[in-house]
Write a structure and sequence with these properties.
disordered N terminus; alpha/beta; 26 strands; single chain; 6-stranded antiparallel sheet
Length: about 475
């Protein structure tokens, strides 16, 4: 049985009360699992594997910037079955092509600045607008962020790193390319995943350099507890045939390892978020059968349709997920199988983005998705979202997520059960200011993310606008 838990079950309400500001906006579904065995189930247990398919580690690649050589790297990775993520800026680029052949994209700011040179409103625009910019051009969610120049802290502004962490959480990033940032600035927030970076050399990759760093990690695997992910990067700056040959040698030697999961950062991020949030409860135990209830966040919230691997502590003879037999494997007296998100919880198939830079109250929409949103600020204190259902059928499971800068207090997502064909709906929210003066300077950028089902198919529509600029004294 699969349930729209957000709308029908008190259990979700209790679950999200203990979550932090961004995870509280997630939607969750339930899945029932029945495991049949030949042995006693009294002491049996079920848990999520730290890495997909019970692999030892995840292995990925990370490449920064809108570099034309990315596609040469993509071909090389594809040749050896290695996946990875390109971190992109808001430039003219073939983003769809970057999402082919086992690779995808992450956010790298709109203009590639040193973020800490800016006020908080400018920082927020840089890290927030790049998400709908990329998603609407690829129809694929983005859940990972990488800092341009690795810049996220400033000795002269000791709070900026914490501010950036809050911004990224509000926007919906739950994976980051910098472990130092994660360890210092995200404590007490929603879980953020990352990886151990190895750079064999941007211009002239070295097998010796790569293996030296790799062996350090493999010989002492304490780091696997928090982030069992090793990644190669950082820039595709190779220009000579020898440099490319050296990189190919590394990929060839370290491809097809049976105990490594070759994945994108996006899929890894989604997996680790599910691993952190999954709730497993035992419903009943019989002599040769045990039944569990699994609660998982929607794939649209974690950013990927990546399955989650579960481990049962005994040998199963049959595994049923929502009443249907599923494939499983048995190893060392344990049973492993996957939970795949149901269609209504999958990532959106279509993503649109409507911008309103002049804060015009009159919609000017280019139709792409069934739901057409328009966002503007009224009387400098109210955020107005107008939505129209332009499809011939009703839209259901509508969730509006408010992505607003730190000058305003965070607002929880709004839920709308359905919109009939041709219907219009207006939602007005009071924007409550925070107390810190430093958050209000500059031009605030405000964004809404609307997820919904169009005839059972997930879609997403973004809308953005700007508030009035507040000059900083003395500047």
């Amino acid at each position: 049985m699969i349930t729209y838990l957000r709308f029908t079950t008190i259990a979700l309400f209790l679950l999200v009360l203990s979550a932090a500001a961004s995870d509280i906006d997630n939607s969750y579904y339930t899945t029932e699992v029945i495991i049949k065995t030949k042995s006693e189930t009294k002491h049996a247990s079920l848990m999520a594997c730290p890495v997909y398919d019970n692999k030892n580690i995840a292995f990925s690649m990370r490449w920064d910037d809108c570099n034309k050589n990315n596609f040469k790297m993509q071909d090389l990775m594809f040749k050896y079955g290695i996946s990875g993520t390109f971190y992109m800026n808001g430039r003219n680029y073939d983003f769809r092509k970057a999402c082919e052949k086992g690779t995808d994209i992450g956010s790298h700011s709109m203009t590639h600045p040193r973020l800490t040179n800016f006020n908080n409103n400018q920082i927020f625009w840089e890290v927030a607008e790049i998400k709908p910019y990329l998603e609407s051009r690829t129809d694929k969610p983005v859940n990972s962020y990488c800092f341009s120049y690795g810049n996220y802290s400033d000795k002269a502004n000791k709070t900026v790193g914490y501010d950036i962490a809050e911004m990224l959480q509000r926007i919906g990033y739950h994976h980051n390319a910098y472990l130092g940032f994660i360890m210092k600035y995200t404590k007490g927030k929603d879980s953020v995943s990352g990886y151990r970076q190895i750079s064999p050399g941007d211009r002239n990759p070295s097998m010796a350099k790569f293996e030296k760093e790799l062996n350090k990690l493999l010989n002492n695997q304490y780091w696997k507890k928090d982030n069992p992910n090793i990644s190669i990067g950082v820039h595709v700056w190779m220009k000579t045939p020898d440099a490319w040959k050296n990189m190919e040698g590394i990929l060839k030697k370290y491809s097809k390892r049976q105990d490594w999961w070759y994945c994108t950062q996006t899929d890894y991020a989604a997996y680790r978020k599910m691993f952190k949030l999954v709730k497993i409860s035992n419903i009943s135990k019989k002599a040769n059968q045990v039944e569990y209830k699994i609660i998982l966040p929607y794939a649209s919230d974690v950013g990927s349709n990546q399955p989650l691997t579960l481990c049962y502590s005994g040998n199963a003879i049959e595994v049923l997920v929502n009443g249907k037999q599923v494939k499983f494997k048995s190893e060392s007296g344990k049973t492993f199988f996957d939970i795949i998100p149901p269609s209504f919880a999958e990532v959106p198939k279509l993503i649109s983005y409507e911008t309103n830079p002049q804060n015009n109250p009159t919609p000017n929409i280019r139709k792409k998705t069934a739901l057409q949103p328009w966002l503007y600020i009224k009387d400098n204190g109210y955020l107005v979202l107008s939505m129209k259902n332009s499809s011939p059928g009703k839209l259901t499971n509508i969730k509006v997520k408010y992505i607003i800068p730190l000058m305003y207090k965070h607002k929880k997502a709004a839920i709308i059960s359905e919109m009939p064909p041709g219907a219009n709906k207006i939602i007005t929210e009071n924007l409550v200011l925070n107390n810190r003066n430093s958050d209000k300077y500059g031009t605030p950028f405000l964004l809404c993310q609307v997820d919904y089902l169009n005839n059972g198919t997930p879609e997403r529509a973004y809308a953005s606008t700007y508030g009035k600029k507040i000059p900083q004294p003395g500047k």
